[in-house]
Amino acid sequence: xxxxxxxxxxxxxxxxxxxxxxxxxxxxxxxxxxxxxxxxxxxxxxxxxxxxxxxxxxxxxxxxxxxxxxxxxxxxxxxxxxxxxxxxxxxxxxxxxxxxxxxxxxxxxxxxxxxxxxxxxxxxxxxxxxxxxxxxxxxxxxxxxxxxxxxxxxxxxxxxxxxxxxxxxxxxxxxxxxxxxxxxxxxxxxxxxxxxxxxx
Length: 200
Hints:
- This protein is an alpha/beta fold.
- 35% of the residues lie in helices and 24% in strands.
- The protein contains six helices and twelve strands.
- It has helices at residues 27-39, 90-95, 99-110, 122-127, 143-148, 173-199, and strands spanning 16-20, 25-26, 43-48, 53-58, 61-67, 70-71, 82-85, 115-118, 135-136, 152-153, 159-161, 164-167.
- α1 crosses α6 (173-199).
- The longest helix is centred in the last third of the chain and has 27 residues, at 173-199.
- It is globular, with a radius of gyration of 16 Å.
- The protein starts with 15 loop residues before the first strand and ends with a helix.
- Residues 1-7 and 191-200 have low confidence and may be disordered.
C-alpha cells in the first residue's frame, strides 16, 4: 500500500517552499499541502500581493485567515526551492491580474524548479505562459483554456510532468501531497547533479 507521507519525515529539510495565494483560496488546498510540506521538514512561506492576512474559502462561505509572511513585491524567487499554488475560484483570478505575481510564477519555470498547482491554480500557469507542451490536470472547467495555452489535459487525480505537479480538486490532496514532496526532493537532487556536471 502506498504511504500517505514519505518514509523519511525530514525529506525536505533545508528546503524553502513559496505558497502564493490571496483572498478566496480554497482553504483545504492551502492548509493541507502546507501541513504536509512542514511535516516533511520544509519551511513554508505564504506570499500574497497584500500584507497582513488572507482569508480562505471553505465550502460555500469564508473560512479561516492565514498570515502572510511576505508580499509578492518583497519576495525573491531565488530564495525558494519550489512553489505551491492552491486553488479556489477567486484566488487565482485575482492573482493573474498582478504582473508581479505572474512573473514570480514564471521564474520557477525559467529556473526549472518544482511547481505544484491544484484545482483552479493552473489559471496562473496559463497567465504565465508556461504550459506549452506540458501535460497537466486541473478543475475540469479549465481544460479548454489549458489546451488553448498549449497544454495537454487529462482527467486524473495527479499528473507529473518535468517537475510540475497538478491535481483536480480537494479529494486529490493526498495524491497531490505525495507527488509534490517527491518532486521537490528529486528536484533538489537533480539540481545538485546538474551543477556538478557543469562544474566538472
